[in-house]
Amino acid sequence: MPRPLALAVDFGGTKVEAALVDDRGILLPGSRHRRATGNAASSDELDAAVSEVVLAARADLPAGAPLLGVGVGAAGPIDVATGSVSPLNVPAWRDHPLAASVAALVPDDPVTLRIDGLCIALAEHWVGAGRGATNLLGMIVSTGVGGGLVLGGRAAPNPTGNGGHIGHVEVGGFDDACACGGRGCLEAVASGPRTVAWARTQGFTG
After folding, report:
1. Beta-strand pair 145-151/84-85
2. What is the rounded distance in angstroms from the CA atom of residue 77 to the CA atom of residue 173?
3. How far apart are CA 98 and CA 53, in angstroms?
4. At 155, phi and psi to the nearest 5?
5. pLDDT of 85 higher than 90
6. pLDDT, tens digit, 9 for 90 and up, residues 127-183
C-alpha cells in the first residue's frame, strides 16, 4: 500500500506553493507547484493562485494513497480561531479566511492553518537541524522575518497562533519604518528586501 501523504501549502509575500509530503518528510516527486503572490496582487488573484497550486498538488495524489489532511503555513499575523490571515507583505488580505478557502477546495480533507514560522520550527525539529532538541526557535528570513517556537518538544501554545513571530520585535538603534506601523522592527531592518536595499546603499550591485 502506498505511504500516507499530507498536502502542504506555503503562502508568503512572494509566492504560494503546494506539494505532497510523506510521513518521513519527503516530497513526492512532481507534486510541487508554485504561483506568484506579491504586494501588488488583488485578493481575487491571490485566491486564484492558492486554488491553482492546491488543486494541482491534490491531483498528483497517487491512486490508493491515503491523504491525511492539508497543512497550511502562512505569513503572519494569523488567527487560528477564525482561520484567517493578514500577511503584512500582502495588503490585499486582511482577516482573509484562508483556511476556509482551502477547505472548500478539498472538502473531504481536514485543513490545519499555522503561522509559517511555527511550520519551519516543527519541520526542523522533525527532520532538520533541530532533531533531538527539546526547545528551539525556528526563523524565516525571506520577504519578511518570521519565527515559531517548539518548547518541551511540542509547538508552543498561543491563543492567536502568532507565538514566536519575532519579525516585529523592535531592534535597538534602528528607526526604519515597518509595514506593521511600527519603527525599527526586525523585519524592517533585516528581511530579504531590506537587506538587499541596505547592501545597495553600500555600493553592492545585483
Report:
1. unpaired
2. 25
3. 14
4. -60, 135
5. yes
6. 999 999 999 999 989 889 999 999 999 999 789 999 999 999 999 999 999 989 999
User: Would you state the cell numbers that stand for residue 9, as one nine-digit string?
Assistant: 501549502
Contact between residue 78 and residue 88 where contact means Cβ atoms under 8 Å apart: no
CA 11 to chain CA centroid, Å, is 5
In the block, cell 492558492 appears at 50
Q: Over 80: is that where the pLDDT of 191 sits?
A: yes
Distance CA(146)–CA(50), nearest Å, equals 21
Query: 84: closest CA among 104, 63, 113, 57?
Result: 113
In DSSP terms, 21 is beta-bridged to 6, 27
Question: 95 near 142, Cβ under 8 Å?
Answer: no
14, 34, 172, 190, 199 from 193: Cα distances, Å? 11, 20, 20, 8, 10
Place of cell 491553482: 52
Question: pTM of whole model > 0.85?
Answer: yes
- Cα 180 from Cα 172, distance rounded (Å): 17
Write down the residue that cell numbers 498536502 correspond to. Answer: 7
Provide the 3-class DSSP secondary structure of residue 141: strand
Residue 2, pLDDT above cutoff 90: no
191: number of CA atoms within 13 Å, CB side? 26
